[in-house]
Amino acid sequence: MRKDVAFGQYYPVDSFVHRTDPRTKLLFLIAYIVALFCCKTGWGMALCALGLLTVILLAKLPLKLVVRSVRGVVFLLVFTGILNLFFYRGEGEALISWKFIHIYKEGIFYTIYLMSRLFLLVMSSAVLTLTTTPIALTDGLESLLTPLKYIRFPVHELALIMSIALRFIPTLMDETERIINAQKARGADFESGNVFKRIKAIIPILIPLLISAFRRAEELGDAMDARCYSGSSIRTKYKKLRFTYRDVCAFFFMAILMTGVFLFNSYGAALSALCVQGWNALLGLFGAV
Fold first, then answer.
1. 231-274: per-residue pLDDT in tens?
2. Strand segments (E) across the chain
3. How far apart, in whole angstroms, are the C-alpha atoms of residue 287 and residue 140?
4. Which residues, including other chains, have CB under 8 Å from residue 122's CB and lie 6 or more apart?
């Protein structure tokens, strides 16, 4: 099960992205999400996809591993796409009309945009966890939220909770797989029957899983107490976070990406016509040769 879950895991390899400061990667992810939701044209969405693909190649990550992170939200993607496709009201005449279902051309484009945004959003988040250890992610988040300490916000505790949650995702998936195998060995059936029977069959999995999760949380708390963990008091760090040339390159790359998205939003029609003219001229040149 753990091999099938990409989100929350760390993929150890020496790459440009892995050695980049975690604070830069967090800011990059936030800016990338903003760019995704600011996209209004297909060219802008294609540019975001190209940017993410470039980061994946620089990180030396297997593309299958990153795409696998979308498995957990496939149902959400399909469900959201169906709702927008069937109930989005366009301005023109409906392409398909049947009872209360009306499919418009605008609804099809909007559904494609929405599903592309969600798909790239999940993949970009998976790239962050695959290239950043939970400890580095905690340190980076705590460093970015340092100004909130002046208003007595529990920055360290929040960063620690997020780090533990990310670390426990693959652990709980492994525990779920063990429980399912144990229940199947006792004759449990999770694949046959209607929806209500399948939901009822999940109950014998949830109860042991909750008990195991609380037991692990209690053991983790005891281990932290045994090591004299003091929470928000002044703590030193073994590794100091420092910005390098990689972070400067990342900021320039994100600036170029966001600039391209906003240019396509403002001058999308003109740029599209220019690209089409250039493509036609290129084809004509090759035809003449």
1. 666 666 777 788 888 899 999 999 998 888 888 877 766 766 77
2. 96-98, 101-103
3. 54
4. 7, 69, 70, 73
| Tokens encoding 276 | 């089409």
Contact 169, 8 (CB under 8 A): yes
DSSP 146: G
Closest CA to 271 of 105, 70, 43: 43
CA 48 to chain centre: 14
- The C-alpha atoms of residue 131 and residue 13 are separated, in whole angstroms, by 8
- 60 backbone φψ class: left, alpha, beta (φ>0; ψ -120 to 50): left
Q: How distant, in Å, are the alpha carbons of 169, 272, 274, 286 from that of 280? A: 50, 12, 10, 10
C-alpha distances in angstroms, 63 versus 1, 68, 120, 121? 18, 8, 13, 15
Domain positions in the chain are 1-132+236-276, 171-231
Question: Who has greater pLDDT, 2 or 100?
Answer: 100
Rounded distance between C-alpha atoms, residue 83 and residue 100, angstroms: 12
Q: Whole-number mean pLDDT of the chain?
A: 79
The terminus-to-terminus CA distance of the chain in angstroms comes to 55
User: Regarding beta strands 101-103 and 96-98, do their DSSP bridges make them parallel or antiparallel, or are they unpaired?
Assistant: antiparallel
H/E stretch holding 162 reads: helix 155-185
Tell me the β-bridge partners of 101: 98
Residue-wise over 171-196: b if at least 16 C-beta within 10 A, else e? Answer: ebbebbeebbeebeeeeeeeeeeeee
